[in-house]
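HUMAN: Please help interpret these tokens:
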Amino acid sequence: MRRDQIIRTLLSSATTGANPSRIPLDKSTSKHQTRGLAAILKDTLGGHRRPFLVLDIPEINLPGEQLTARGAAVRGIMPFASETVYGLKQDGAGFALDMPALEDFFARHAGTEVLVFGFTYIVWTEVVQKLKAMGQIFTHPEMILLHSGGWKKLTQQKVDREVFNAGVSSALGCGPEK
């Protein structure tokens, strides 16, 4: 691939090594990647759009020539969204829950199916654990959570799939199977 054909560079999360991998994408590859993800998700989610809550900060999805794995994942799910809301905000060097955004999202969409996405480690440490510490619980049984990445760090904390699902279920009010 020639340099002038590159439209975007994807950056890995660099959890295994110190430096992120850099994956150059041309227009054709980017289009095929988007279509492939949409086809896979359509089998699981169906073809209809629904409200989409991203358990991350809005800055991961800024336009530009570089895109992180987190931003790429969010963009890949956006075709299934009727609206997109971010549930975290930047707080100094870390993240904080955007409680007004979370409360508004769940209140406006009570009784309707919503799609929620986040990286596994962020969902656990920045959402589930913080809501638990605050004594805050949301009840949204119609929620579907998609999550990926971050299991290495959670394994070190002795958080397996069962513990993770139970924690998400208790904090966000969906069944552990969701």
